[in-house]
C-alpha cells in the first residue's frame, strides 16, 4: 500500500477540466484500496474454477461468477451461446448511463484444461500463482474492481460501458467469423476500446500497449516423385519433397525479413509417407535413407503489425512456394483461424496519452508504448480497425501459459484505479 499517499496527494492537484471531479476520483482511489482483499478473494475463487477453453461448463461457470459481480452494479448481463463454433460462449454486460460507449475486453478461458496439473491459486504475500491468474482472470478482476469503484464514486451512473468477455480467446472456435461476430459488432458501435490482458512490464517499468501483431497459421505441403535414392536429382525423380520443403523454408528465412514480421515453423515431417492429423497439431512420417521422399508437411505461424504488412508477406511467401524444384509440387494454405493485427495508430497513441494524464493525476509514472514485436495477439485485434484501442490494462505478472503463471497483487490496485478514472473520463468525453 506504499503508493497510496502520492496517489492521494496527486489528486488534490486535479483541476476543474477533468472528466470527473477530484473528489470523485479520490473516492475511486480509496475504494479500490479498501476493497483490495475482497478482490484478491474474488481472484482466488475464479482462478480455482477451471475454465480451460474446452471445459465448456467451466467457462460458463466462470461467466456466472462474473455475472454475479456485474448485475448488482446495474449492468444488463447476457450470455451469447457459441455451440455452433464448439465453444461455450461469451459474456456481454451493458450499462448505458449516457455518454460515449467504452468497450472493455477480456476473456474467461485459459490454456489450462482439466487434465493440467496446474489448477490452484496459491498466495505468497503480494505474489500469487495460478492457472490463468494473469491471462486473463486478473484482467477480469481489474474490470470488476474498477467498475465497483466507479459506482462508489458516483461516476458509473453517467457512464456508457460495455464489458465483453470471450470464452475462447486461447483457442477460438470455428468458423472464426461467427466466433468473433458479436465482438466485432460491439467494436463498431464503441467510441473507445480498452483491453485487459496482462500489463507489459520490464525492469520495474510499466508500458502501454498501442499495438499488437496478428497471429495466423499456415500449412505447407510439398510433394515429390518417390523412388530409389540412386536416381535423386535426375530428370526422372527430381529433388523429392524434403529438398523442396528445405528450399521454401530457407527462402522464407532469406527473403521475408522486415521489422515486426515473424514466421515460425512449429512442426515438420517428411518421408514416404508423411501425414498430418485432423487438428493440424501432429505430423508423422516414415522412410528409408535410400528412398526419395514423397511428401513433406510443415505448419507454422505468421505475425504482422499491419494489414498491409500481412498482405505483403503472404504474397511473397506464395511467390517463393511457386518456384518449384524439378519434379516437385508445393501447396501453401493459410488457416482461417487468424487474429488480425492491432496496428499502431494516432488514435491509439492518443488513448495512451489520455492514460498518461490519469497517471500524472494519480502520481504514477508515465508509460511509454511497448514494443509490439514482444506482445502476442489478442481479441483487441478484432475491433482495432474500427475503434481507437488501448491494450494491456490487466494485472502485472509473468509466465503466462506456463505452469507457475504469477501476478503481482499490488498491481491490481494500480490498474483498477487507472482503469476506473480513465473509463469515466472517456465516457464523459471531457
TrEMBL record:
Per the record, a Pfam family?
M20_dimer
Tell me where in this chain the Peptidase M20 dimerisation domain is found.
210-327
- InterPro entries with a match to the protein in the record: ArgE/DapE_CS, Bact_exopeptidase_dim_dom, Peptidase_M20, Peptidase_M20_dimer, Peptidase_M20A
Q: Which cofactor does it need?
A: Zn(2+)
Superkingdom of the organism of origin: Bacteria
Under the heading Gene3D superfamilies, the entry gives: 3.30.70.360, Zn peptidases
Keyword Zinc found:
yes
GO MF annotation, one: hydrolase activity
Keywords for this protein = Hydrolase, Metal-binding, Signal, Zinc
* N-terminal signal peptide: 1-19
Annotated PANTHER family = ACETYLORNITHINE DEACETYLASE, ARGE_DAPE-RELATED DEACYLASE
Would you tell me the protein name for this molecule? Answer: Peptidase M20
* Organism name: Brevundimonas subvibrioides
Amino acid at each position: 500500500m506504499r503508493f497510496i499517499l502520492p496517489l492521494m496527494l496527486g489528486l488534490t492537484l486535479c483541476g476543474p477540466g477533468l472528466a470527473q471531479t477530484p473528489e470523485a476520483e479520490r473516492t475511486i482511489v480509496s475504494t479500490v484500496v479498501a476493497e483490495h482483499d475482497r478482490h484478491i478473494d474474488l481472484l482466488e475463487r475464479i482462478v480455482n474454477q477451471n475454465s480451460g477453453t474446452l471445459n465448456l461448463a467451466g467457462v460458463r461457470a466462470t461467466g456466472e461468477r462474473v455475472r454475479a459481480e456485474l448485475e448488482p452494479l446495474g449492468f444488463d448481463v447476457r450470455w451469447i451461446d457459441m455451440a455452433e463454433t464448439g465453444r461455450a460462449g461469451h459474456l456481454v454486460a451493458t450499462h448505458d448511463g449516457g455518454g460515449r460507449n467504452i468497450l472493455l475486453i477480456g476473456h474467461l478461458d485459459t490454456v489450462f484444461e482439466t487434465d493440467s496439473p496446474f489448477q490452484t491459486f496459491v498466495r505468497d504475500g503480494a505474489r500469487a500463482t495460478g492457472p490463468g491468474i494473469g491471462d486473463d482472470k486478473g484482467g477480469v478482476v481489474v474490470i470488476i474492481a474498477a467498475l465497483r469503484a466507479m459506482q462508489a464514486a458516483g461516476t458509473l451512473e453517467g457512464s456508457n460501458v460495455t464489458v465483453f468477455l470471450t470464452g475462447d480467446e486461447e483457442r477460438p472456435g470455428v468458423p472464426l467469423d461467427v466466433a468473433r461476430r458479436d465482438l466485432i459488432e460491439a467494436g463498431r458501435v464503441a467510441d473507445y476500446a480498452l483491453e485487459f490482458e496482462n500489463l507489459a512490464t520490464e525492469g520495474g517499468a510499466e508500458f502501454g500497449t498501442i499495438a499488437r501483431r496478428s497471429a495466423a497459421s499456415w500449412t505447407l505441403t510439398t510433394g515429390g516423385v518417390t523412388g530409389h535414392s540412386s536416381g535423386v536429382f535426375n530428370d526422372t525423380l527430381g529433388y523429392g519433397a524434403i529438398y523442396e520443403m528445405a528450399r521454401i523454408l530457407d527462402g522464407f528465412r532469406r527473403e521475408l525479413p522486415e521489422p515486426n514480421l515473424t514466421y515460425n515453423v512449429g512442426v515438420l515431417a517428411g518421408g514416404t509417407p508423411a501425414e498430418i492429423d485432423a487438428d493440424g497439431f501432429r505430423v508423422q512420417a516414415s522412410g528409408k535413407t535410400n528412398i526419395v521422399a514423397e511428401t513433406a508437411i510443415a505448419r507454422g505461424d505468421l505475425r504482422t503489425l499491419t494489414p498491409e504488412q500481412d498482405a505483403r508477406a503472404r504474397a511473397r511467401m506464395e511467390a517463393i512456394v511457386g518456384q518449384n524444384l524439378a519434379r516437385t509440387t508445393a501447396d501453401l494454405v493459410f488457416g482461417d483461424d487468424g487474429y488480425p493485427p492491432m496496428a499502431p495508430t494516432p488514435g491509439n497513441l492518443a488513448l495512451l496519452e489520455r492514460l498518461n494524464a490519469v497517471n500524472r493525476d494519480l502520481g504514477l509514472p508515465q508509460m511509454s508504448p511497448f514494443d509490439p514485436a514482444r506482445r502476442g495477439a489478442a481479441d483487441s485485434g478484432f475491433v482495432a480497425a474500427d475503434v481507437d484501442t488501448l491494450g494491456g490494462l490487466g494485472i502485472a505478472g509473468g509466465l503466462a501459459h506456463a505452469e507457475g503463471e504469477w501476478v503481482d497483487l499490488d498491481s491490481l490496485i494500480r490498474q483498477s484505479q487507472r482503469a476506473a478514472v480513465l473509463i469515466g473520463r472517456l465516457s464523459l468525453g471531457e
